[in-house]
Amino acid sequence: ELRQTLKERHVNMIGFSTVLGLGLFLSAGKAIYMAGPGAAVLAYLVAGTIMWSAMACLGEMTALFPVKGPIFEFPRRFIDESVGLAIGWITWFSWVVTLAAEIMSITEVFRFHFDPAYLQTFQYPSDRLEWRAGMDTNPAVWVGIFLIVVLLVNLLPVRQYGRIEYVFGCIKITFLVGLILFNTVLNARHKFHADRFWTYKDPYGFARNDFSVKDTHTYTGALGGLTSFWTTLTTTLFSLMGWEIIFFTAAENRDLRKTETLKLATRKITIRVLVLYALCAFTVGLNVPWDDAHLADLTIHGISGGQNSVFILAAVRERVKVIPHLFNAFFIFSPFSTAINNLYGASRILHALASHRDAWPEWGFFEAIRSRLESTRMGVPMNAVFVSWLVGFLAFLSTNESQAENLGRMATAAVAANLIIFAVNCIAYLQFYRQVNAAATGKLDEDLNLTPEMRNFYKRASRQYPYRSHLQWIRAAYACTGCILLALFNGWRTFVSPFSAKDFVASYIAI
């Protein structure tokens, strides 16, 4: 069995560290390019409220019923068993693919290089800004090194893993605060574009009013603003994935009841992510225009290097030395830490699936695999860790540019899969909400024979109830609607001529 050795502080930082991978540092620039700095901030806030509402649904159900694999167990209980098990496998797929994508992104960040002509444009103090060692080294070397370290950390007892991620999470929070202060200082050094930021004009204005697709179609006016904001909204979601890992820790959380871990973790992560992400996007948007050449990347899929990060561009444009190297080094550390958590989450999902015989084919071979995946050693499901880790070898596709693009498409499919997972869990919550209220009022089947004490326990207004949010059923409906719409229209650009079958499949195969 899994051991309950994680503390509340460990769970908090595991959740935050998982969300903060490379997504913010690269997607923030793409969001600013597509929608403008102000609209990019709004996109982060809107996407954040959708994720927050969905996580609150999972938080309430898990706090009341702390089970293994809650993200598929609740759909299994409250919707249909087959739906729940399907969600379990989709979740495992999305987490292992994200593991490979995070490792692959590290290899891209190592290829740090600026065109000398770009540096001369802003009179950068040096005529070269690059990591020659990273450019000359085969990406397979970095993939192998980081995959091995990720595996070793996940083989540690879970309490040691929690301590490591607590330190990593503190480092990430400190860096984000420093990033906000750095961009604020840059903007305060002199008047950039006007006396006040709210009077900035294009390309520093609040939002773009045009949007180009595949260099063949350009939408302007209200339609341009809508398409740019919607596309930015789906882009920002990639940098907001991973909140659900705090619920994967429920079976290993020793403070689950005592300190209201899930309640605190859900709210703390929400505040940290929404505030820090929005401030990062806002402050850097004051310093880098949306028409910067390094931000002009509207590819639907793919992972860029550190030279495409809007935060590094802010330092380069202001001729600040050393800082670009420090930022790029952190952009390697951040997805590395997230990859560790991705393997943790994937292994716990696979271990939970192994406890359900119906989730596996009835052949003897698969039964043998299932029984081994269900086993643990020192409280760690090592077989589940190892099997999930093997899928991370997809990161070796980064050695081939065309294959790396395919892995990028798989990562897009994983994001779409997460939207479906959250939508299904919101539906499960609405059913859970109805049944909990029925249990509290004695309207459930009489054969349950609920005592008055048990009925009182299910009253959401009672102090015994572990975690609840006001108007949560409305938030569940809001999150469900948002996730469904985003999943249905996340790949709308694939329909624009010329039609891309590969991008279409990547965007909609999860559906």
TrEMBL record:
<dbReference type="InterPro" id="IPR004841">
    <property type="entry name" value="AA-permease/SLC12A_dom"/>
</dbReference>
<feature type="transmembrane region" description="Helical">
    <location>
        <begin position="380"/>
        <end position="398"/>
    </location>
</feature>
<feature type="transmembrane region" description="Helical">
    <location>
        <begin position="473"/>
        <end position="492"/>
    </location>
</feature>
<feature type="transmembrane region" description="Helical">
    <location>
        <begin position="86"/>
        <end position="106"/>
    </location>
</feature>
<keyword id="KW-1133">Transmembrane helix</keyword>
<keyword id="KW-0812">Transmembrane</keyword>
<dbReference type="Pfam" id="PF00324">
    <property type="entry name" value="AA_permease"/>
</dbReference>
<feature type="transmembrane region" description="Helical">
    <location>
        <begin position="410"/>
        <end position="430"/>
    </location>
</feature>
<feature type="domain" description="Amino acid permease/ SLC12A">
    <location>
        <begin position="10"/>
        <end position="437"/>
    </location>
</feature>
<protein>
    <recommendedName>
        <fullName>Amino acid permease/ SLC12A domain-containing protein</fullName>
    </recommendedName>
</protein>
<keyword id="KW-0472">Membrane</keyword>
<feature type="transmembrane region" description="Helical">
    <location>
        <begin position="326"/>
        <end position="344"/>
    </location>
</feature>
<feature type="transmembrane region" description="Helical">
    <location>
        <begin position="12"/>
        <end position="35"/>
    </location>
</feature>
<dbReference type="InterPro" id="IPR050524">
    <property type="entry name" value="APC_YAT"/>
</dbReference>
<feature type="transmembrane region" description="Helical">
    <location>
        <begin position="41"/>
        <end position="65"/>
    </location>
</feature>
<feature type="transmembrane region" description="Helical">
    <location>
        <begin position="269"/>
        <end position="288"/>
    </location>
</feature>
<dbReference type="GO" id="GO:0015171">
    <property type="term" value="F:amino acid transmembrane transporter activity"/>
</dbReference>
<feature type="transmembrane region" description="Helical">
    <location>
        <begin position="139"/>
        <end position="157"/>
    </location>
</feature>
<dbReference type="GO" id="GO:0016020">
    <property type="term" value="C:membrane"/>
</dbReference>
<feature type="transmembrane region" description="Helical">
    <location>
        <begin position="229"/>
        <end position="248"/>
    </location>
</feature>
<feature type="transmembrane region" description="Helical">
    <location>
        <begin position="164"/>
        <end position="186"/>
    </location>
</feature>
